[in-house]
Amino acid sequence: MAGPASLILISVFGTLALLGIPLAISITAAALAAVALVAPLDMALFTSAQKMLASLDSFSLLAVPFFILSGVMMNSGGIAVRLVNFARLIAGRIPGSLAQTNIAGNMLFGSISGSAIAASTSIGGVLVPMQAEEGYDRDFAAAVNIASAPTGMLIPPTTAFIIYSLVSGGASIAALFLGGAVAGLMWGLGMMALTSLIAWRRGYPVGGRTGWREALRITREALPSLMLIVIVIGGIMFGVFTAVEASGIAVIYTMLLAFVIHRTTPLRNFPSFLLETAQVTGTIMLLLAASAALSFAMAFTGIPAAVTSLILGLSDDPVMVMLIINAVLLVIGCFMDIGPAILIFTPILLPIAQKVGYDPVHFGVILVFNLAIGTITPPVGTGLFVGASVAKVRVERAIRALGPFYILLFAILALVTYVPALTLTLPRLFDL
Amino acid sequence: ESLRFAYASNATPTKEAMAHFGELVEEKTGGEVTVQFFPDSQLGGERELVEMVQGGLLDMTKVSGGLMESFSPVYGVFSMPYLFDSQEHFYAAMDNPEVTGPVYESTRDDGMVALTYYDSGARSFYTKDKPIMKVEDLKGLKIRVMQSPTSIRMVEMLGGSPIAMGQDEVYTSIQQGVLDGAENNEFAITIAGHGEVAKHYSYDVHTRIPDIMLISTATLDRLSEEHRAAVIEAAKESTEFQKQAWNEAVEAAKKQSEEEFGVQFYYPEVAQFQQAVQPMYDELAADPEKQLLFDAIRAAAGNS
Amino acid sequence: MRALRRALDIGVGAVCCGLLAAMIAVLAWQVFSRYALNAPSTFSEEALRFGVIWVSLLGAAYSTGRGTHMAVDLLREMTRGGVRRALEFLVPLAFLIFSLAVLVRGGLHGVEIAARQTSPVLQIPMGYIYASLPVSGALMALYSVLNLVDLVRDRRRLPDDLERMIIAGD
Ligand code: NA
Ligand code: NA
After folding, report:
1. Chain B residues touching chain A at CB-CB below 8 Å
2. Can you tell me the mean pLDDT for B206-224?
3. Å from C42 to nearest chain B CA?
4. pLDDT of residue A432
5. pLDDT above 70 (res A262)
6. Per the database record, which ranges form the Tripartite ATP-independent periplasmic transporters DctQ component domain (chain C) (predicted)?
C-alpha cells in the first residue's frame, strides 16, 4: 500500500506545486489522492475536512495569532532604531563594529518580531548602507545581514516551535523555546566571531566609545522593548505561566508599549494590526490544516513506517542516521519554506530520530535550525532574496560572500546535532 | 476482508485485549476476516475516530465512555460518581445485556453501535501538595477533568475548580501550578508519568467509566451473517480476556508508582463524598432515558 | 464587482478583528482569574479553541482575496505570454475546486455528523464549529470568482514570492 500511495502522493504534490498552485491546495490534493486509493472520494473529502478542522482545534495553537500580533505591533513603530542603538552599545567595540551591530540587532529584533524578513529589512536596511559608506564591501555587508537574520526563528518567542510541538505530539513548547534560545545564540555568536575575523583581516574600523550618559539613555529607550523577551523567556523558564499565557501577556504588553508608553502609533491603527494578524494567521493555519490532512493520509496508507524501515535499513547507527536526516532536511530546506516543511516532515522523520535515541525536543531544535538555514540558501530562499534586495546587491554576489558563513553554519549544525547537552541542559535544569 | 480498527493511547491490558480481539476474529472466520490496527492516535484523537466510524472510513474504534456522552447523552450516566459499588457490581451491570443493550444501540441512527466494553478501572484524585482525605480538602483546588459535562459537574459539587483540558497538557500544568491535581486511574501515574509531579493518590474511587468498542453500522451490514456473529462473539470474549489482565496490571502500576515515583496512596472515607454529589442524582430524574439506565444499573447491585 | 469585493473585505475583515479582540479579552480574563482570583474560568479554554478555528478559516478566506497564500512561483516567473497567463489562471481555478469540494462539500458532511454532538463545556452544538469549514469555503469560492474575473479583465496580477513573504512577515 505504501508504495503506490507514496508515488501518487509525491507526483500529485510535485506537479501541482510546480505549476504554482498554492501549497495548501497542492498538499490537500495529494492527501485526497492517496486516501482515494483505498476509500470512496466522498469519504476522502469528509476526512480531509475533518482532519483540517481537528488540527486547528488546539489550545496551544492560540499562541500563533497572539505572537504574530505582538510582532506586527512591534514592527509598526520606532523600535528598530532603538534596537540598533542598543545593539551598537553591546557590539560596537568588536572589529567590524557596524556589521557586529547588524548581527546583534537582527538577533534582538528577530526575537521580538519573530520574523527574519522583518529583521533583515528594518535592521539591515539601516546598517548595510552605513557600512557601505564607511568603506565595507557591500557584498560582505549583505552577507552578514542575511546570515544573521534567521536567528529570530530560533530565539523565542517563535511560531516554528509551537507548530512543531503540535505535530510532534506534545513536545514541551517551553523546553523547545529554551533549547532554541541556546541554538539561536550559538548561531548569532558564531556569526559575530567569523565577522570579527574577516573584519580584522580587512582592517574594517572599530567604533568609538559611547559616554555612560549616552549609554544610559540608549538602554532606557530600548529597555521596554527588550523586556518582552525577558517576560516571555523568564516567565516560561521559571514556570510563572504557560507558553499560551505568555503569548497573551506579550500582546497586552506590546499594546501598552505601542499605545501608552512609546505612543509610536495611534489606537485607531489597532484594527489594521488585527486584520494583518488574521491574514497572516489564515495563511499559516490553512497550510497547517492541509498538512494535517496529508499526515493522516500518510499514516492511513502506511508511508511513515515504510520510510522508517527504508532509512533504518541503510544504517541503524545514530550518527549515520542523523547525517542522512540532516542531509535530507537541508535539501528540503533548499526548496521549501519552514512552516510546511515542519508540518509535513515531522511525522516522517521524528519517529526515526526517536528510534535511534533522539529526544523530541532536541530533534525539534535540529529540525528548525536546518530549515532556518534553508531560508538563506539557493534556489528558494526568501531570506536570501530579501536580504540581497535590501542591500541592493545581485543574489549571486551575495551567495559568494555567504560562502564562509554557510560553512560555519554547517559546523554549528553538526554541534547542535551531535552534542545533545547543548540544547537539553537548560530545559532539564528548569525541569521543563 | 480486512476491518480497519483505530484507537488512541491506552493501558497495556486494553491494548492486549484489542490485539486478542483481532486474533479471535481471524480464528473464528478461518482467516476470511482480519483486523488492521492503527494504534496510538496515529489517525487522530478519540472524537475524530468516532466520527470516522460514523463516516465509514474506519470500521471500528475503541474510546472512553466519557467521550461518548457528546454523541449520545445517555452514556453520561456511566460518568456519574459512585454509580457502581465495586468492581463486581460494575461487571455484573455491564455484562447484563438488558442494562447495556439500549445504550449500545442508542447511536444506531448515527451510523454506529457499540459491541462491548472494557474495564478502565476506578478513577480517583491525585494531587500535588496534599492528599484528599475529606471533601473539604478539595475546596478551591484546580482539578483537571475529562471534557465531559458530568465530570465537570462532579468536581464542582465536591467544591473543586474543574478545568477541562487535554491529557497531554496535564503534566506541565501540574508542574507549573496551573493545576493542583487531576483524577484518573493508576496508569496516569505510571504511563503518563504524572507521578513525577503529583505524589498523593487518594482512593476516593469516584467513578468507573467503561471504555466502549464501536463498529460502523455500514460494516455490520456489509459482513455476512456468519462473519457478523464471529465479530460480535470475538468482542465479548476479548472483554473476558481484558478482565483477567486488568487487575494484575493495576497492581503492577501501583507497585511501580510507590517504588519508582515515590507516590503515596491514601484511603479516605468515601461516604462523605457520596453525600456531596447526591444532588446530581436528583437532577437525573429529569431525563427518563438516563433514569431508566440508572435504575437498571442500581438493580444489578444486589446481584453481585 | 468591485463593490462586492469591498463589501466582502469589510464584512470578513470586521468579523476577524472582532473575534481576535474578543479572544485577547478572554485570554486576559483566563490569566487574571487563574492568578489573581485563584478561581480559573472553566469556559475560557474551549471558547478560545473555537475562536482560533473560526479566525484561522476566515483569515484564510480573507487571504484568498488578497492572493497571499504561499506558492512556488518558479515556473510562473520563468515563463512569458500565453503560458504564463495560463499558469496565472490555474490559481483561482484551483481555489474554486478546493473550496467547493473539500471545505464546502466535505465540511457540510462534517456539519451533518456533528449536528447531534454538543461541546463538553459550553454545551453548544459542535455543528457550529464544523460550520466554519463550509462558511469559509463559500467565501473562498466567492473571492476566487472575483479574482478570476479580475484576471480576465487584466485588472490584477498575482503577487510574487517576495511580495507575499513581506505581507506574510515570515
Ligand atoms: Na523569535
Ligand atoms: Na533555501
Report:
1. 38, 41-45, 47-48, 51-52, 55-57, 165-166, 168-169, 172-173, 175-178
2. 96
3. 6
4. 67
5. yes
6. 23-153
Higher-pLDDT residue of A291, A79: A291
DSSP-derived 3-state class of residue B60: strand
Shortest Cα distance, chain B CAs vs residue C48, angstroms: 12
Q: For residue B201, give the H/E element and its range.
A: strand B200-207
Which ligand is closest in space to the CA of residue A152? 1
Please tell me the total count of domains within chain C.
1
CB-nearest partner of B172 from A39, A172, A296: A172
Whether B302 shows a pLDDT value over 80: the answer reads no
What pLDDT band is residue C71 in, cutting at 50, 70 and 90?
confident
Residue type, A369: F
pLDDT at B37 over 80: yes
Of C20, C52, C106, the CB nearest to A277: C20
Sign of CA dihedral A97, A103, A107, A113: positive
Chain B residues closer than 8 Å to A169 by CB: 41, 168
pLDDT of residue A104: 93
Residue A409 three-state SS? helix
Residue A244 confidence (pLDDT)? 82
Q: Which of B47, B57, B176 sits opposite A239 (nearest CB)?
A: B176
Task: Kindly list the residues from chain A whose CB atom is less than 8 angstroms away from the CB atom of residue B47.
Answer: 54
In A86-96, which positions are buried (b, 16+ CB within 10 angstroms) versus exposed (e)?
bbbbbbbebbb
Domain that holds residue C144: 2-168
Average pLDDT value over all residues in chain A: 87
Q: B69: helix, coil or strand?
A: coil
> How far apart (Å, rounded) are the C-alpha atoms in residues A25 and A90?
46
Q: How high is the pLDDT of residue A147?
A: 96
For the entire predicted model, the pTM comes to 0.84
In chain C, the N- to C-terminal Cα span, in Å, equals: 32
pLDDT number for residue B20:
97
CB contact under 8 A, B54 and C113: yes
What are the start-end ranges of the H helices in A203-269?
Answer: 212-229, 235-237, 243-255
C113: left (phi over 0), alpha (psi -120 to 50) or beta: alpha
pLDDT band of residue C159 (cuts 50, 70, 90) is low
- Chain A's closest residue to B165, CA to CA, is A59
Chain A residues in contact with B8 by the CB 8 A cut-off are: none
With b for 16 or more beta-carbon neighbours within 10 A and e for fewer, the B91-123 pattern comes to bbbbbeeebbeebbebbeebbbbbbbbbbbbbb
Taking one residue from A and the other from B, the number of pairs with CB-CB distance under 8 angstroms is 49
Which residue, among A28, A55, A67, A283, would best test binding to C if mutated, counting the most C CBs under 10 Å from its CB? A283
At A122, the amino acid letter reads S
pLDDT band, residue B63 (cuts 50/70/90):
very high
Give the strand pairing for B161-164 and B123-127.
Answer: unpaired
**pLDDT score at C156:** 60
Cα of C46 to ligand 1 centre, how many Å? 27
pLDDT band at C162 (very low <50, low <70, confident <90, very high): low
Contact across the interface for A53 and C28, Cβ inside 8 Å: no
Between the CA atoms of A174, A176, A179 and A181, what dihedral angle is there, to the nearest 10 degrees?
A: -80
Cβ atoms A59, A376 nearer than 8 A: no
**Most C-contacting residue of B71, B138, B168, B287 (CB-CB within 10 A), to test interface:** B71
pLDDT of C170 > 50? The answer is: no
The complex's ipTM works out to: 0.83
Q: How far is B163 from chain C (nearest CA, A)?
A: 6
